[in-house]
Amino acid sequence: MTEIHCVFEESPERGFIICAVEMAIFTEEDDTQDLRWRVGDALHCHFDGANTPRLTHSHFTRDEPIAAVKRLIDKWLG
Prior knowledge:
Blueprint: E1 3-10, E2 16-20, E3 26-29, H1 32-46, E4 55-61, H2 66-77
Parallel strand pairs: 1-4
Antiparallel strand pairs: 1-2, 2-3
């Protein structure tokens, strides 16, 4: 394997989590800078040295309840 895709997400409790797509690799940290270092540690723990992916694609996602907020505002205003 030469590359791996990971998704950054805000944790409901605090900080951020990252999980690899289609693999059981997870880690968490208080900020995204430290989380980037944790990804490398998690990959080295999961793979042996020769098979560690050389490239990591990271995607940051954020769930925002925009539709629900808009419905509440519409309800209040009208």
